[in-house]
What does this fold into?
Amino acid sequence: MRLPAQLFFDGAWRNSASGRRTTLINPATEEPFGEVAAADVADVNAAVESAQRVWESGWRDVAPGKREAILHAVARKLREHLEEIAQLETLHIGKPISDARDEASLGARVFEYYAGAVTKFCGQTIPVGRGGFDFTLRQPMGVVAAIVPWNFPFPIACWKAAPALAAGNCVVLKPASLSPLTAIKLGELAHAAGLPPGVLQVLPGSGSAIGDALVTHPLVRKVSFTGSTGIGRHIMELAARDLKRISLELGGKSPNIVFADADWQRAAETSPMSVFANTGQDCCARSRVFVERSVCEPFVDRFIAATKMLLVGDPLKPETQLGPLVSAAQRATVEEFLADARQRGSRFACGGGRPRTKGYYLEPTVLLDVRKDDRCWREEIFGPVVCIAPFDDEAQMIRDVNASPYGLSGSLWTNDLRRALRIAKAVESGVLSVNSHSSVHVEAPFGGFKQSGIGRDLGMAAMDGYTELKNVYVAE
Ligand code: NAD
Ligand code: MN
It folds into this structure.
C-alpha cells in the first residue's frame, strides 16, 4: 500500500515549503513505518488564499443539484476505498481493524447524508406586518478551517468537511500529527471524485507549528475544532481577536447511570466497551459508572468478568477489540493517573499493567473506592480506565454527575419511564442514551454542554454552524 505522504491541496500532491517531515510510528509495534510532509506557515497561507479564490470564483455559486451530485460522488469514491482507508487508520493509530472498517463506512455515510442536505437546507419567509416582505438566507461563510484529533481521525474529518462543503464553503483540513494518512486520503479521493481543486485542502502538520497561523488567518471565517479542552480554550482566545466563528468539540467525563430496576445484567455486560472501546481514547467514554447500591456488587462482578473477556491484541486481527494506545506519551499520561490512583488508595479490581512487551498496550482497568476529589474521578483520562461507585439517593447522584465541568455524553439504565424522562432532563450533557451506549447518529446533533464544547456536529444542526443567517426585508 502506497502511503499518502504529502500535503494535498489545489488538487495536487505537494511537499511542504520548509521540506519538513514527520516520522510515523506504528503504535502496535513501536516501529517507524514512514514519513509524511509537515506543512508550515507558508503552506497554510498558500492553501487558505487559493481556497478563498476558488470560493469567490465559483464554488459558492455552484448550483445546489451539482453540489449534491459531487458530494454523492465523493461518498461513492470513499465506499470504493473503504478497506484502504481502514488499513491506513489502523496502521497509524492502532485502531482495531473491525472498528476502522465501521468508521470508514461511517465517513462515507456522512457524505451521503450531507449530499442530501444541500437541497433541503433553506431559509424562511417571515410575516412582519403590512408593507413589507421578509425572508432569510443561509449563506456560506467562505474558508472554514477544520482541525481534528487522532482518536477518530477519518469520521471526524468527514463530519466536519461534508456539511461545510454542502453549505457552500471551502475547507482547509488539518489532521493531528499522529494521524495524517486518512485525512490526506480523503482529500485525494474527493478530488478524484470531482470536487474541484482548492475546495478541500489537506495540510498535515503539527498544531504547535501551524495551528495558530491557521486559526488567525484573516481569510478563515470559521474554525471547527475537535480535540482537548485546553487547545479548544486556546483557539477560542485566538478567535476572540476578530470574533471568528468557532465550534468546539472537546473533552468529556461521561456518566453511566445504572438503576436496580434496569436490566442491569445487560448493562454490566455492555458497559466495558462503552469506556474501553478505542482503548478508552474516546471523548464519549463512560468513565464514571454510578450504580444503585443494591445491585452494585453483582454489577461490578459482571462488569469485571466481561472486561476479562475483551480481546486485547494485534489491531490487524479482525477479532481484536482493544489495540494499543496511540503513542508512548499517551500511555505515560494514563499511567500517571494510575499511579495517582494507587497513591490515593483506590482498589484495582482488574488491570493496571502492561499486557505485552511490544506496543503501547495497557490493560483495561477497573477502579473502585475512588474519591470524588481524586484526579481519576474528576479528569478525562483518555485511556482504558473506569471508576465505578455505588449511589443511594437519586438527587445526590445527579448532583455528583453534574459536578463535572464536562457535559458531553452519558448512558442511563432504567425501565421506569418517568425516571428516565426526569433524569434525561436533569443531566447536563449534550447527548444521552437510555438503555444503550450509543452517542453518535449521523442524523442527530452531537456536541457538549459546559467545557465539553460549543456548537454541534452532525445532523442539520451542523449546517447552522457552517452558514451565516441573513435577514432581508423588502418594502412593498
Ligand atoms: P489535541 O487538542 O491535542 O489536538 C487536536 C488537534 O488540534 C490536533 O490536530 C492538533 O494538532 C491541533 N492543535 C494543537 N495545538 C493547536 C493550536 N495551537 N492551534 C490549533 N490547533 C492545534 O487533542 P488530541 O490529543 O488530538 O485528541 C484528544 C482530545 O480530543 C481529548 O480531549 C478528547 O476528549 C477530544 N475529543 C473530543 C471529541 C468530541 O467530539 N467532543 C471527539 C474526539 C476527541
Ligand atoms: Mn494531542
